[in-house]
Amino acid sequence: MSKLRTEIARRRTFAIISHPDAGKTTVTEKLLLYGGAIQLAGTVKGRKAARYATSDWLELEKQRGISVTSSVMQFPYQGFIVNLLDTPGHEDFSEDTYRTLTAVDSALMVIDSAKGVEERTIKLMDVCRLRATPIMTFMNKLDREGRDPISLMDEVEKVLKIRCAPITWPIGMGKSFRGIYHLPLDQVRLSAGGPHSPTKEEGIIKGLNNPELDKRLGLQAEQLREEVELLREASHSFDVEAYRRGELTPVFFGSAINNLGIRELLESFVEHAPPPQPRETTTRVVDSGEPMLTGFVFKIQANMDPNHRDRIAFLRVCSGVYRKSMKLRHLRSNKELRIANAITFMASEREHVQEAYPGDIVGLYNHGTIQVGDTLTEGEELKFTGIPNFAPELFRLALLQNPMRMKALQKGLIQLCEEGASQLFRPLTGNELVVGALGILQFDVVAFRLKHEYGVDCRFESANAVTARWVSCDDPERLEAFKERNRGHLALDICGDLAYLAPSRVNLELTAERWPEIRFHATREH
Ligand code: G4P
């Protein structure tokens, strides 16, 4: 097998989806720990304090303690290279999360076993479903009194509409939580007690009928045997093809904080999760094994160093090999770019790249040439599809304290919106600047950054819109007529595409009924 094929076969690129507080940060920490990427023995608290400086790039993040940005962590595990793309926990930055999900090949869903399926998990699953992303499930916090495991799986099946196949099964729960049973391997791992990461063999008892189990678990051993017998009859068995099609999710139980169930999860993950997958473009499907480099930008991170106005574009490599200082063709501007220093993301430290393979993320320094959604190649003219803008649900007018700063405001807003911090709309009538977002904190971030990076004092006031729809029509005359009649509600977005800013949901419905030839799109592809 060629080097490229070998590297592809051992890459796994994924993100974690969960409702806040379910344990995403803790699971991330433990995965890194097993991957040997961090040596922090302490608790999550220790981790949070220790890693603050490296992962929280924006000053605002530090002030608020919210992770505004996604970062990327790469770690090796058993010969595999795992890329974990972190997503903001706060729902006000869901746009960032949605885009990050376009750059992964699979996802891990973390559920708090006391709470079950929560609202944000439902939304994120909907986004995963758009691309049939394969999902593994980790039911966390079994060390607390939670819901019955069967009813948890039922809920996932009903609410998230995906079949569940248990791989591990909890022994007890809450105070009586003793460990987990691995169904395919027919072995038990008993809780080692304490927060250190157990070695491969630690606490392992082979075989459900092993008398050692009765010695160690007492009555719980018999109960486990009964449960497993029932489970083998009543639940779905694991089918890797159905998992890869996004129709079935393997389920793992455990307690992240106590390191229980994480090793089993990670081992299954590297074994079964898909390597870098083929990707669609406007002209053809690109296979990861093709020798020429292609990739797309799913995220821009600005001003990590406040002394330099540089930005880092996060490029997902889709095919070929990225080599230091190579020339790349930037399709939108049709220019050649030579990126002098690109970075990879080895866990908490940023390192300079020598080579990167499909599935890897490369950080490209630039001064604003590169936007979210852009494709880079070694020359071929193609454009990756499926990196969406979602219609904002909150709108504000950007108003200046000092009218002399109009130019700076426009420049700042355009640049911040190109990064995807929020969306800018310029109404066809008047000179207003309308900023759209999915979460209220996005406005705070924009105002903060305008002040600190562009020296513009800007305040936001409510605008007369509740949602936006990008409009298109096959008949240019009808489109003109529509524009004439609805000028007051129409605006151009940052790419010059026409959008209808609806003052109410009812108005949107009525307008759509009145103009059947006009198509109203809730998402726009970059
Ligand atoms: P998030 O990133 O999904 O928001 O969750 P995070 O990992 O920060 O975990 C949320 C809370 O749940 C944390 O407690 C964390 O310690 C706790 N937690 C995570 N995994 C487990 C588990 O397996 N069992 C139990 N019992 N708790 C768990 P916190 O008090 O909010 O934070 P901290 O003070 O511990 O940092």
UniProtKB/TrEMBL annotation:
GO molecular function: GTP binding; GTPase activity; guanosine tetraphosphate binding; translation release factor activity, codon nonspecific; translation release factor activity, codon specific
Boundaries of every Tr-type G domain copy: 9-277
CDD domains, per the entry: RF3 (cd04169), RF3_II (cd03689)
InterPro entries from the UniProt entry: EF-G-like_DII, EFG_III/V, G_TR_CS, P-loop_NTPase, PrfC, RF3_C, RF3_dom_3_sf, RF3_GTP-bd
Localization terms from the record: Cytoplasm
Amino-acid positions noted as binding GTP in the UniProt annotation, renumbered to this chain: 18-25, 86-90, 140-143
Entry-linked PROSITE patterns: G_TR_1, G_TR_2
Domain of life: Bacteria
Keyword annotations from UniProtKB, A to Z: Cytoplasm, GTP-binding, Nucleotide-binding, Protein biosynthesis
One Pfam family cited in the UniProt record for this chain: EF-G_D2
Gene Ontology CC, one term: cytosol
SUPFAM superfamilies: EF-G C-terminal domain-like (SSF54980), P-loop containing nucleoside triphosphate hydrolases (SSF52540), Translation proteins (SSF50447)
Gene3D superfamilies given in the database record: P-loop containing nucleotide triphosphate hydrolases, Peptide chain release factor 3, domain III
Gene Ontology process terms (BP): regulation of translational termination
Protein task: Increases the formation of ribosomal termination complexes and stimulates activities of RF-1 and RF-2. It binds guanine nucleotides and has strong preference for UGA stop codons. It may interact directly with the ribosome. The stimulation of RF-1 and RF-2 is significantly reduced by GTP and GDP, but not by GMP.
Family indicated by similarity: Belongs to the TRAFAC class translation factor GTPase superfamily. Classic translation factor GTPase family. PrfC subfamily.
Name of the protein this chain belongs to: Peptide chain release factor 3
Organism: Nitrococcus mobilis Nb-231
Phylogenetic lineage: Bacteria, Pseudomonadati, Pseudomonadota, Gammaproteobacteria, Chromatiales
Gene: prfC
